[in-house]
């Protein structure tokens, strides 16, 4: 595996299990030193034992330069990554992590930022709210969860909201007496036309978001998924040409491009293998990809300049990649 560099070993400085089904981990260097900087919306890769590597958004404020804080929702039916972090990790343990990367960055624009979070999708948006407040830029955070007990970071968010000068927080609890579900339509309708919208949550919320933001400039609509929505392209029957060596690799039925390259002994970067992290992005020099990822925007897909080789395929007989 050539997962992107897990080149830091950090200590679990603190564990917080107060939220039902969610564990907060505060990761720091053993010597308490500074870590590589990050912007709001960034994530890190975390080695999770035999389950491999998972991505987690950083939720702490980017100016807290000595820590990376992540929130891990326990997925009972998952592949074991969240279970590892919930059940096997203790304060003082060491975890291997990557440097932060960001596919969900705040746009530098004085227009208001409307942050929309569902469930554990709060993590990157909470970092964004803190960054916007620190920069004196206007923001709103709309956070929906089933109940207060299941709303990660709620204590921190409510304390922050009480003293915020540039933004406000709206909370929605769908499974409590007198509570309500977030009305995405009305949140988006009320957003100023020039606002930047950011959304992170489960698939139903993101599908609804996609519909509700229609008519707004694509450059002002941003989202991040933590679940893939599409099947990988595995029809095969095409050839991948590696431009730097001229080598040709056949992609057979049942294989992705990544499978075929691994089978041929070609080392490439990847992490999630699901089309959500962006780590396997490769420049396309010739050919038409069959995009199946949740990373590229519509414009980027149309441009066909890059593709995610872990899940996307080819619409023709040949792809030439910058590898
Ligand atoms: S490995 Fe994550 S998008 Fe391909």
Question: Would you write up a description of this structure?
Answer:
The structure is a single chain. This protein is of the alpha/beta class and 323 residues long. Strands 9-8-7-10-11 form a 5-stranded parallel beta sheet, with helices on both faces. It has 3 domains: 90 residues, Translation factors (Elongation Factor Tu (Ef-tu), domain 3), CATH 2.40.30; 113 residues, 3-Layer(aba) Sandwich (Rossmann fold), CATH 3.40.50; 84 residues, Roll (Ubiquitin-like (UB roll)), CATH 3.10.20.30. Helices cover 19% and strands 29% of the residues. It is globular and about 60 Å long. Helix 4 packs across helix 5. The model has no long low-confidence stretch (mean pLDDT 94). The chain has 7 helices and 18 strands. Bound molecules: FE2/S2 (inorganic) cluster.
At the fold tier of CATH, the topology name of the largest domain is Rossmann fold
Order of helices and strands: EEEEEHEEHEHEHEHEEEHEEHEEE
Class of secondary structure makeup? alpha/beta
Low-confidence stretches: none
Distance between the termini: 17 Å
CATH C-level class of the largest domain = Alpha Beta
Helicity level? 10-25%
Q: Compute the gyration radius: what is it?
A: 20 Å
Strand content: 25-35%
> What is the overall pLDDT average?
94
Our count of helices gives 7
Q: How many strand units?
A: 18
Q: Main sheet?
A: 5 strands, parallel
What is the CATH homologous superfamily assignment of the largest domain?
A: Nucleotide-binding domain of ferredoxin-NADP reductase (FNR) module
Overall, the morphology is globular
Trace the largest sheet across and list its strands: 9-8-7-10-11
Q: What is the second-level CATH architecture of the largest domain?
A: 3-Layer(aba) Sandwich
Structurally, how many domains make up the residues?
Answer: 3
Ligands in the model, by name, code or SMILES, are:
FE2/S2 (inorganic) cluster
């Amino acid at each position: 595996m050539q997962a992107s560099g897990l080149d830091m070993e950090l200590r679990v400085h603190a564990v917080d299990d107060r939220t039902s089904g969610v564990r907060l981990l505060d990761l720091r260097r053993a010597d308490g030193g500074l870590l590589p900087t990050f912007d709001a919306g960034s994530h890190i890769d975390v080695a999770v034992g035999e389950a491999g590597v998972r991505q987690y958004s950083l939720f702490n404020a980017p100016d807290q330069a000595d820590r990376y804080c992540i929130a891990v929702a326990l997925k009972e039916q998952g592949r074991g990554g969240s279970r590892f972090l919930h059940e096997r990790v203790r304060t003082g343990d060491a975890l291997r992590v990557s440097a932060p990367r960001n596919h969900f960055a705040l746009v530098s624009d004085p227009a208001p930022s409307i942050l929309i979070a569902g469930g554990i999708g709060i993590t990157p948006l909470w970092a964004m709210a803190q960054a916007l407040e620190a920069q004196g830029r206007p923001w709103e955070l709309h956070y929906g969860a089933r109940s207060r007990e299941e709303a990660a970071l709620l204590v921190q968010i409510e304390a922050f909201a009480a003293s915020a000068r540039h933004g406000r927080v709206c909370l929605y609890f769908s499974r409590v007496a007198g509570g309500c579900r977030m009305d995405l339509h009305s949140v988006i309708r009320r957003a100023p036309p020039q606002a930047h919208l950011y959304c992170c949550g489960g698939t139903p919320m993101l599908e609804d978001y996609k519909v509700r933001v229609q008519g707004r400039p694509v450059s002002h609509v941003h989202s991040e998924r933590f679940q893939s929505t599409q099947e990988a392209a595995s029809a095969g029957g095409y050839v991948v040409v590696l431009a730097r060596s001229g080598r040709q690799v056949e992609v057979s039925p049942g294989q992705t491009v990544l499978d075929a390259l691994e089978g041929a002994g070609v080392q490439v970067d990847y992490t999630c293998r699901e089309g959500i992290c962006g780590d396997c992005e490769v420049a396309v020099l010739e050919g038409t990809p069959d995009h199946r990822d949740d990373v590229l925007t519509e414009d980027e897909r149309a441009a066909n300049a890059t593709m995610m080789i872990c899940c996307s395929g080819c619409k023709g007989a040949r792809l030439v990649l910058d590898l």
